[in-house]
Amino acid sequence: MRVTAEADPGQLDLGAFDLVIVLHLRRxxxxxxxxxxxPHRPHLIGAVSGTDLYLEPGIDAELVAExxxxxxxxAESRRALPAGxxxxxxxxxxxxxxxxxxxxxxxDVFEVCVLAHLRAVKDPLLPAKASELLPESSRIRIxxxxxxxxxxxxxxxxxxxRDLPRWSWLGALDRGAAAELLGHSKVCLVPSLAEGGAAVLxxxxxxxxxxxxxxxxxxxxxxxEDHPGLFPAGDAEALASIxxxxxxxxxxxxxxRARSRELxxxxxxxxxxxxxxxxxxxxxRSPS
Length: 288
Prior knowledge:
- The longest helix has 17 residues, at 269-285.
- The protein folds into two domains: 9-93 and 268-285, no CATH class; 110-267, Glycogen Phosphorylase B (Rossmann fold, 3-Layer(aba) Sandwich), CATH 3.40.50.
- By secondary structure, it is α/β, with parallel strands linked by helices.
- The chain contains 13 helices and ten strands.
- It comes from Engelhardtia mirabilis.
- Keywords: Transferase.
- Pfam families: Glycos_transf_1.
């Protein structure tokens, strides 16, 4: 097997491959078109991201129809695709390995982590707004880790981090430090306006950390429609309310943790590997 991580269509003999997987269909449109135009083309899989589905401009459905199969990270993404593409779409849940070490959260504060780069679709400043609505007695401290992808948001995050007592932006963290922050947190918060299937959700679930997330299709598809930690996207008051409840209602916090433990087996690495194996075997049995 030969694997090419990032491919420039002009630098590859695409006809020499048995399979091409295109990540991010909008950004990979040139590669999709190059493979589709080959007289004897390899099998073609398109991996659908949240930005492909939920942000404008959308995908080119006619071009994407050239894919032999599409892969989404959760069922809501499949339902968001044009009807003609849904039959060839597989849902393959993104896995995460269980942490080897389980840090003990602090007792003197109620730490909430947000792990997301600073860009508008992640709604990174909503938790800062929510922190200002918490009761004066609250011990909640929201820690946001992520790189600056939008300079305007980065400037504002730095200002708020100085001014707000319960919200801090930590900047970019390496993978180990981010995992440690997640493990020390009582709650993992995902406030995005749109998601395809956030990796941090999976990581929080397998770590047994309580999850609070915006009610957008990408989060609902991972967590389930009835997850108790969902709140309306963009609603700072609702977010402050659910965080305050998690801080003060031990039974509710344990309910959130229990839901993560219940979901965790779905995201085990062997489950994801088996799903990919079945997809590749099906493609191997079909003509390209």
